[in-house]
Amino acid sequence: MRSGGYAPIEDYALIGDGRTAALVARDGSIDWLCLPNFDSPSVFAAMLDAAHGGAFELQPALPFTATRRYLPGTNVLETTFTTDAGRVRIVDAMALPDDRLPPMRELVRAVEALDGRVPMRWRCAPRFDYGRLAPQCHWRYGIPVATAGAEAIAVANWNAGTPAWRDGAIEAAFTLSEGERGLLAMTTAYAEPLILPARGAVESRLRATIEFWQQWSASRQYEGPWADVVLRSALALKLMIFAPSGASVAAPTTSLPEELGGQRNWDYRFCWIRDSNFMIDALLRLGCYEEARSLFWWFMQATALTEPIVDVLYRLDGGPGVPERELTLDGYKGSRPVRVGNGAVAQHQHDIYGALFETAWLYSSGERQLDADTGDVLGRVADHICTIWRRPDSGIWEVRNGPFHFTHSKVMCWVALDRAARLAEAGEMPRRHAARWRREADAIRAYVDRECWSDDLRSYTRTAGSADVDASLLMLPLVEFGDARDERIAGTIDAVNRLLRQGDVVYRYHAADGVPGGEGCFLNCSFWLVSALARCGRTDEAGALMQRLIARANDVGLYAEEIDPQTGAFLGNFPQALVHLALIDAAVALSPARRQRRAS
Amino acid sequence: MIGTAIAAGFVATLVMTTIMRGASQFGLTRMDFALLLGTTVSDNRRKARAYGYVFHFVVGILFALAYAAFFLITGRSGWIVGALLGTVHAVFDGTVLVNVLLPVVHPRIATAETAANDIALIEPPGFLLLNYGRNSFIVALVAHIVFGIVIGLIVRP
Predict the structure, then answer these.
(1) Do A231 and A179 share a domain, yes or no?
(2) I need a labelling partner for A213 at 20 to 30 A (CA). Which of A44, A480, B14, B131 fits?
(3) Residue B65 near residue B57, CB atoms below 8 Å
(4) A140 CA to chain B: closest CA distance, Å?
(5) Where in the sequence is the domain holding A524, given as residue range(s)?
(6) Residue A179 burial (CB < 10 Å; 0-12/13-18/19+)?
(7) Cβ–Cβ of B123/A152 closer than 8 Å?
(8) Distance (Å, rounded) from C-alpha A72 to C-alpha A86?
């Protein structure tokens, strides 16, 4: 299972509480957790350095096999270990707070013997600040406590052995017989005293957490052939929304490599404006109106700091600065550097303006309206787009050898000005410049049709005048850049299918991008292909591809950013929000209700 | 003089609270007096902090009145006397107040006598607040000295 101390990325499952998230390996080791928030330094980072990153292991002390699932309709993970001595079940959750003096963050691990008599072991080795700080080891009235600066964790246990400190780790062994139950609760604090919980309160919060997730799932609105996978994606996305602000991380991890041993290792624990567009679309479709409103208001507050210029990404608290730096961790299977922060923040990526306006357009549909101040801000941004769309940019893929005149960026600028004009016509934005926005939108369309089309390829091209295609072109039918059945759109889909698809997955491009090394196929692009085919009326083809892509998920229904087309191994940060958003879009595009609406 | 002492107590507690919160935010300590005091009356973290700030200000004003009484009795005040009183005050808080007196009235603070029950417990401060980090007493000492200086400068016998 593990190689050099590293589990395959697809062996992980995600648990979280809307403020941070942990990755649990199939063998019961929690190898990733940042505290107190997604974008805080890690306490467990064995995923990025098996020797020094820190982990919280809990597993049988005998050889075992493991099966996993999420408890139905929840983000609570259940792992069942089978050994020669019997079976045990572990339930892992980040408990949601209640009114019984909850800890700042609480990781609960409940162990129950199903049959036989199974020896178990656990070892909690916290390594604060991305493994740079070994813990100060203490006891508080029988409970082991690890501290470093303003951070602290306590590991309380009931019926799970007598813990002892050894080499900066708390460890214990215990044996459970059929029907017996042990409980571990890791409580954490930052800049405040620890809370040392009682067993009853921990058990109560675990039950309440399960009930919350089940109720949340029951409120989702999607019916269709892929309801189960759509719900799992929705649950995964909910875990990636930072509840205090409403922003969503692109993924809860940093520097899981796009190529083993390679340098394409990026920090995704920030909110990309581009992803927010897809997120709001998905949230509205799933009936998550509160989450959509929260994200939209975060969106407008964050961009208020920089408007009319919109940054590529923002911190979860809405701040603009995320300088990139490298850590001394070894990296996943030696894939260095390990980066925190993201240098893409300094790039110009014009497609994000399309995302901003598409978000506003989606949000303002139905009974929700934009307020006057928001309309004024959007008006200034639209004017700004009129002045910049002719310039080259770094594009959706954040290339580091640019800038170029990316077709996708031009199209998204068209989306921005088209939606701005439509919002103005609907009275949601000031109308004084609407004619200019419409005129510039038409100019962009003419530019794209003239400069970004290849008669040889029978396709739109990656950049103006190039002979390459790019999977981002699959977005053209998704954003209604012309009729989805138009021969240029159909030709573009065919070209991507022909030139970038390998099996059932799609590379984003084959051109150089300024970063050494290769990469896998992008799973979001693969789902975009499904959406594009469905919108063009090729539903049988789309449905068959969708089925194959769903089979590519790991055993608990999660996807990484990329996949190795040959081995099926996951690559890149995990789980990635954009992939799950693309999955939901593809499922909706294929849903009978949508097809009936199109037919009518 | 009482009115001056109350006003000085409010200002001095504000400055002291700012120093302590700033130290927490810069990772110097896990000391959080608002949470520690507020959880005497509430399990709800948000309410507890709100109550805790109120308690902290009330206690700060009471200490300011005690400082004023000392100034009146001795006939001496000023920033040096205030700083000395602040030092004594910090030692008293870090030893007797939080480790002896507070557990008597605090239902949720862990003590050596704590047995298994169904009440969540807040981590005890320990001698000189050291459970909350090595720098905790230094932070508390600086904050209390500043508290005393402010009182000493404002309140005159």
Answers:
(1) no
(2) A44
(3) no
(4) 7
(5) 227-599
(6) exposed
(7) yes
(8) 24
pLDDT in tens, chain A (600 residues): 799 999 999 999 999 999 999 999 999 999 999 999 999 999 999 999 999 999 999 999 999 999 999 999 999 999 999 999 999 999 999 999 998 889 999 999 999 999 999 999 999 999 999 999 989 999 988 899 999 988 999 999 999 999 999 999 999 999 999 999 999 999 999 999 999 999 999 999 999 999 999 999 998 878 888 999 999 999 999 999 999 888 899 999 999 999 998 888 999 999 988 888 889 888 888 888 888 888 888 888 788 777 888 888 888 888 776 789 999 999 999 999 999 998 877 788 999 999 999 989 988 876 678 888 889 999 999 999 999 999 999 999 988 888 999 999 999 999 999 999 999 999 999 988 999 999 999 999 999 999 999 999 999 999 999 999 999 999 999 999 978 788 999 999 999 999 999 999 999 999 888 888 888 899 999 999 999 999 989 999 999 999 999 999 999 999 999 999 999 999 999 999 999 999 999 999 998 666 554 444
Q: What is the CATH number of the domain that holds A290?
A: 1.50.10.10
B136 touches chain A (CB under 8 A): no
Query: Can you say how many angstroms the Cα of residue B30 is from the centroid of all Cα atoms in its chain?
Result: 14
Contacts of B41 (CB under 8 A, 6+ apart): B48, B51
Number of CB pairs < 8 Å for A and B?
A: 94
* Residue to substitute from B21, B29, B30, interface A, most A β-carbons within 10 A: B30
In this complex, the residue of A100, A192, A200 whose CB is nearest that of residue B35 is A192
Geometric angle at alpha carbon B36, from B30 and B39, rounded to 5°: 140
Gap between the Cα atoms of A192 and B52, Å rounded = 13
Can you read off the two tokens belonging to residue A527? 């789902």
- A198 vs B26, B44, B119: nearest CB: B119
Identify whether residues A507 and A562 lie together within a single domain.
Answer: yes
Number of domains forming the structure of chain B: 1
Q: Does residue A190 belong to the interface with chain B, where contact is any CB pair within 8 Å?
A: yes
Q: Do A200 and B118 touch (CB under 8 A)?
A: yes
pTM of the predicted structure, to 2 decimals? 0.90
Could you list the residue range(s) of the whole structural domain that residue B81 is in? 2-109+118-154
Residue A372 shares a structural domain with residue A421 = yes
Yes or no, beta carbons of A198 and B114 under 8 Å apart: no
Q: How far is A151 from chain B (nearest CA, A)?
A: 7
**Number of residues assigned to chain B:** 157
- Check CB contact under 8 Å for A193 and B131: yes
Instruction: Identify whether residues A208 and A293 lie together within a single domain.
Output: no
> Would A210 be classed as within a structural domain?
yes
Q: Are residues A320 and A294 in the same domain?
A: yes
A296, A364: one domain: yes
Closest CA in chain B for residue A205: B120
Instruction: Specify whether A353 is located in the same domain as A382.
Output: yes
Residues of B in contact with A195 (CB under 8 A): 120-123
A1 assigned to some structural domain: no
- Asked, for residue A2, whether it belongs to a domain, the answer is no
Residue A192 touches partner B, C-beta closer than 8 Å = yes
| Contacts with B113 (C-beta within 8 Å, 6 or more apart), sequence order | none
Which chain B positions have a beta carbon within 8 Å of A192's beta carbon? 24, 30, 32, 35
